[in-house]
Amino acid sequence: MRRAEALSLMLSLLPLGAHSRPRARELGLRIGRLAPGPLDAITDVKGVRVGHTTLNRGEGPLVPGQGPVRTGVTAILPHGGDLWHDKVPAAAFVLNGNGEVTGLHWVNESGLLEVPILLTSTMNVPRVADAAITWMLRKHPAIGITEDVVLPVVGECDDSALNDARGRHVTEADTLAALDGAAEGPVREGAVGAGTGMICYQFKGGIGTASRRAETPGGTFTVGALVNANHGRRPELLIAGVPVGREIPERLVPPGAHSIIIVLATDAPLDHRQLGRLAKRAALGLARTGSNAHHSSGDFVIAFSTATRLKAMGALETISRLTDEAADPLFEAAAEATEAAVIHSLLAAETTTGRDGHVAQALPLDRLRVVMAANGRPLAPGK
Asked: Is the domain 29-310+319-374 a CATH 3.30.470.30 member?
């Protein structure tokens, strides 16, 4: 019997059942060369905060405007201080533009991030943006009077395969809760917040995060990534270079709109131009998971540095930064952290039944172990 036939037989004998959801290092799965930070999360970059509001209610046939509801909002704050007055260097990169991130032009024009980054589903963008403005106005009474007006940054992916998209169920209160609840420390992943209704490589996807430590001539720095993964088709999926998607072809939920939002954070002292270069390297990590950035895909990256806080204090400002020649380890860290964050979104997400009985199956860990072992990458034994 040929290896491919034997593998197919082994896989056919394994059910697509429910599993506990370990992360990559708990499985003995090493992604890339660099070491992760203590949490293997974007919050390994000191000061970065993440918050989620998850909306998961109702079941059965779709009743437009009522449910079922499988959606939410995720907030990322570069630091816990006064972001409006203590701005951070930032840049954005669009790999494929079939989607929306509001405020992106101003991020690239100013080279700064002065508001939180919010993620949600496509038709909730205006509601989340309005709530973000409310949150900023409450914190800064001079906005629009003696200070500038505010442009929120809100990124979307389409969750309509599982969610009642027409209901636009994310409220102002939901967005404010995600912002006010954003915290340092471990980050919940999978079908939470903006990732609640997302589908990745025709498995259940959603929020994933990871980090990598980079040794540069200027010091040791961390690059963290957080993704909302809603992209790809099953045959494309690669995990640590292994064509996992081709080996698990069953129970295909309709793919999402092939979109992904990637947020990169680093404590390395980089300016806007350098952060734009860093953001592009996230696309390399995305490609390592099998993505081809489909025609219908919205693939957006926002990168920021927490090393510098910029104030409007006069005509001159000085920014310390790494030299370009020192940046290569950071580029490697950005690609690896992005790749690992996508895989973490798949490992964390639980099987989800959405509207009209659509089922987005979790990546089955028992099947994954068989595929990885057959390709010379054995994982830690399961329970």
From this structure: no
Q: What is the pTM of this model?
A: 0.93
| Range list of H helices, the chain | 3-12, 104-110, 125-139, 172-180, 244-247, 272-288, 328-348, 365-374
Torsion of CA 266, 269, 271, 274, to 10 degrees: -60
Mean pLDDT per 10-residue section of the chain, whose length is 383 residues? 44 41 93 97 98 98 97 98 96 96 97 98 98 98 97 97 97 98 98 97 97 96 98 96 94 74 98 97 98 93 95 64 94 98 98 95 95 93 66
Catalytic annotation, residues: 259, 297, 299
The distance between the two most distant Cα atoms of the chain, rounded to a whole number of Å, is 77
Strand locations in 158-247 (E): 199-200, 203-204, 206-216, 219-230
Residue 9 neighbours by CB distance under 10 Å: 10
Domain range list for the chain: 29-310+319-374
Please list, in sequence order, all residues whose beta carbon lies within 8 angstroms of the beta carbon of residue 252, skipping any fewer than 6 positions away.
Answer: 202, 234
Count of beta carbons in the 10 Å neighbourhood of residue 15 = 8
The three-class DSSP label of residue 166 is helix
- The pLDDT value recorded for residue 126 is 98
